[in-house]
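User: Sequence recovery, please. Input:
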């Protein structure tokens, strides 16, 4: 009897253990199933939000997550294509082929479209714009090309009448004969864009509700602009709230001798001559590569005197401005205070290395 008892004891022990293991396996299997269901049960708008935060390549790979995710990328409202993937070289033809593949399979309105390329695929870009015109739902368009030649924005681009946000870099901008502008445009960034001053003013006149305007200029393009044209720029921006500009006047000074510049500066009109100019909505202004020329100083004074709701005016000095020149500029500003329409405006001057030297 004793032996039988011992045999039964040891034979039952593994059975209890095996039953316990089976229970654990079922729990783990159930947890995996619930976890998979949680991914599939996410709302469609949440899935689209997740996908828009991913690079397009990774978004396409989510098709393996579940059946529900298989075609979610085809309804993404935001598409971003960037061939600048670190140090990895991307074949331009494969890149263009991938763009067209995504566009052809996309089945929902595209609200935001961004394209960053290092190659001159101009004819392909024209075709992409024509494709976007089919539904014409684009509200935000960002285009940046880094090449030796400038991309000429096609006339078909101006048919994207729903645009609210436009950013162009290293492009040539020419208005078609029938210039309708963009009546809904609120944010405009040219960084930089080759466009004649008169054409720019004509374009802005047909974009009446622009609230944020950025005009960045570098050595890639030559821009000559007078103080009168700067005033005309503001007249074309009646709703402007945020303004960012750089190097608008430097080219004029570099391309003339000092005597000519000095004569021009001495003949600048007084601020009171611009009685019809009012920047009633301007809240922020930023000037980059400020070289402390007299024309730039007068421009700052004009803005400060005509902006009743201005909150911040930031001036970032050019690297060519020495510390002695900066001290002299600050001394002159303190010695001869200029009128300010906004008593709460914060006027800040800083050096290029994010080090604030003056704050009043």
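Assistant: Recovered sequence (360 residues):
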């Amino acid at each position: 009897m004793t032996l039988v008892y011992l045999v039964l004891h040891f034979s039952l022990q593994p059975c209890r253990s095996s039953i316990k293991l089976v229970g654990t396996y079922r729990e783990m299997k159930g947890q995996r199933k619930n976890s998979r269901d949680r991914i599939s049960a996410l709302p469609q708008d949440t899935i689209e939000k997740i996908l828009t935060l991913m690079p397009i390549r990774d978004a396409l790979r989510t098709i393996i997550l579940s059946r529900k995710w298989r075609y979610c990328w085809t309804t993404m409202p935001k598409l971003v294509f960037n061939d600048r993937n670190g140090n990895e070289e991307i074949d331009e033809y494969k890149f263009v082929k991938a763009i067209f593949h995504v566009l052809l399979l996309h089945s929902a309105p595209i609200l935001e479209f961004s394209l960053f390329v290092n190659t001159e695929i101009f004819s392909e870009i024209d075709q992409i714009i024509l494709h976007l015109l089919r539904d014409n739902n684009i509200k935000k368009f960002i285009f940046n090309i880094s090449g030796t030649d400038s991309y000429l924005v096609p006339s078909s681009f101006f048919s994207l009448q729903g645009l609210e946000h436009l950013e162009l870099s290293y492009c040539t901008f020419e208005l078609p004969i029938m210039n309708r502008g963009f009546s809904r445009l609120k944010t405009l960034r040219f960084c930089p864009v080759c466009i004649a001053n008169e054409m720019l003013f004509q374009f802005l006149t047909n974009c009446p509700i622009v609230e944020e305007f950025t005009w960045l200029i570098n050595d890639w393009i030559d821009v000559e602009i007078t103080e009168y044209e700067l005033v005309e720029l503001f007249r074309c921006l009646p709703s402007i709230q945020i303004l960012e500009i750089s190097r608008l006047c430097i080219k004029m000074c570099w391309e003339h001798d000092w005597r000519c510049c000095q004569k021009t500066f001495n003949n600048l009109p007084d601020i009171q001559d611009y009685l019809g100019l009012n920047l009633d909505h301007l809240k922020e202004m930023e000037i980059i590569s400020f070289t402390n020329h007299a024309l730039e100083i007068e421009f700052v004074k004009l803005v400060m005197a005509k902006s009743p709701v201005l909150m911040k005016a930031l001036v970032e000095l050019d690297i060519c401005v020495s510390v002695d020149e900066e001290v002299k500029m600050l001394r002159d500003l303190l010695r001869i205070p200029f009128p300010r329409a906004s008593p709460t405006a914060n006027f800040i001057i800083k050096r290029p290395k994010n080090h604030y030297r003056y704050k009043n």
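Residues 1-22, 249-269, 355-360 have pLDDT under 50 and may be disordered.
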